[in-house]
Amino acid sequence: MSTSAWVGTWRPHRPRGPIAALYSSPGPKYGLPTNVGYRLHDPSRHRAPAYSFGARLAQHPDDRSPGPAYMLPPRTTAKGKDGTPAYSIYGRPRDLEPFRTPGPGCYSPEKAGRWAFPSPPVYSLRSRTKEFASDQTPGPAAYRLPPMLGPRIVSKSSAPNYSMPGRSTVGAFYQDLCKTPGPCNYRVVDANVYKSRAPQYSMLARNELPGDTTLKPGPGAYSPSTGKPQGLTFGIRHSDYLAPLIVDVPD
């Protein structure tokens, strides 16, 4: 049995030309718009009309149409009405009455009276009708002609009019001037109303700062001369952890 891993005479070698399987490519995946369907269709291509079957609407459940079954009249063919002639029997109509035109001897022009011949005016006196009681027409005395004197003449220009009024108490020589208001009765308008407002100041009471209200000892409360004065010494700092110094060593 052969220990070689290759079968036959084939051995690995450098390819003589490019092999497509050795190179990676995107394949048939392009970013162009589709030409199938209605949505996202290519705008440069013709798009055919699209139709769909919609669901039955729920807001009209009571509509029931007859469908394609129609009640056609009888004797109706695919080309229209049947061509067989039909006849019916009706009653005889009545004859029209002739015109009854009057003849020449039926006229009486002498009876025309004032409508055909000139006649003087005719008047008559009648009683007052019932409807006359509700009429609100003014009588002859209700009309008033324009006056001929004064400034209200319609057809003429009026002359100047003068009148003598009563004596006035204001501005006359006998006017009581003591009743006129004095200088103090006039109210002076504040200048801040019609001019720029001036700055305003006010004087308030002095404010005290909050302080400590506790009692403090004065200078006489201290006694520096009393008590034992403390002395100062120089010594060695001792520690509890140091061993004692042994000077006398026994023999």
From TrEMBL:
PANTHER family: BOREALIN N-TERMINAL DOMAIN-CONTAINING PROTEIN-RELATED (PTHR21580:SF28), SHIPPO-1-RELATED (PTHR21580). This is Outer dense fiber of sperm tails 3B. The gene is CIMAP1B. The lineage of its organism: Eukaryota, Metazoa, Chordata, Craniata, Vertebrata. Pfam families: SHIPPO-rpt. GO terms for cellular component: cytoskeleton. It comes from the Eukaryota. Residues 208-229 are annotated as: Disordered. Coiled coil: none annotated.
